[in-house]
Specification:
Elements (H helix, E strand, L loop, with lengths): L1 E6 L2 E3 L5 E9 L4 E9 L6 E7 L4 E3 L7 E6 L4 E6 L8 E9 L6 E2 L3 E5 L2
Parallel strand pairs: 2-11
Antiparallel strand pairs: 1-3, 3-8, 4-5, 4-9, 5-6, 7-8, 9-10, 9-11
Length: 117
């Protein structure tokens, strides 16, 4: 079992930046990839960015060039640096750990990001 705790959300003006953090604990060895998802009111949860154990990254088209996913293995933490934020980036952001060996994936509790003037 992996436990995930997100932090770093908040209110920011359009064009501003935020950095989200996702600290993991528990069965870290069972993680094969980490991802950031977001869900806006009335919309489906969507994948924003993902990084696997080999360091390969993926970004949704809507955030490419603005968001950067990274990790600090020593701290068991994954980050999402969000720059040039837009009102349409407003959502609850969730961290997810993809598990190996058919084990269950894990989700964090979510952190709210609001982009508004």
């Amino acid at each position: 079992q992996v436990q995930l705790v997100e932090s770093g959300g908040g209110l920011v003006q359009p064009g501003g930046s935020l950095r989200l953090s996702c600290a993991s604990s528990g069965s870290i060895f069972s993680i094969r990839a980490m991802g950031w998802y977001r869900q806006a009111p009335g919309k489906q949860r969507e994948l924003v960015a993902r990084i696997n154990n080999g360091g390969t990254t993926y970004y949704a088209y809507s955030v490419k060039g603005r968001f950067t996913i990274s990790r600090d293995s020593a701290k068991n933490t994954v980050y999402l640096q969000m720059n040039s934020l837009k009102p349409e980036d407003t959502a609850t952001y969730y961290c997810k750990a993809d598990a190996r060996w058919g084990l269950s994936d894990s989700w964090g509790q979510g952190t709210q990001v609001t982009v508004s003037s």
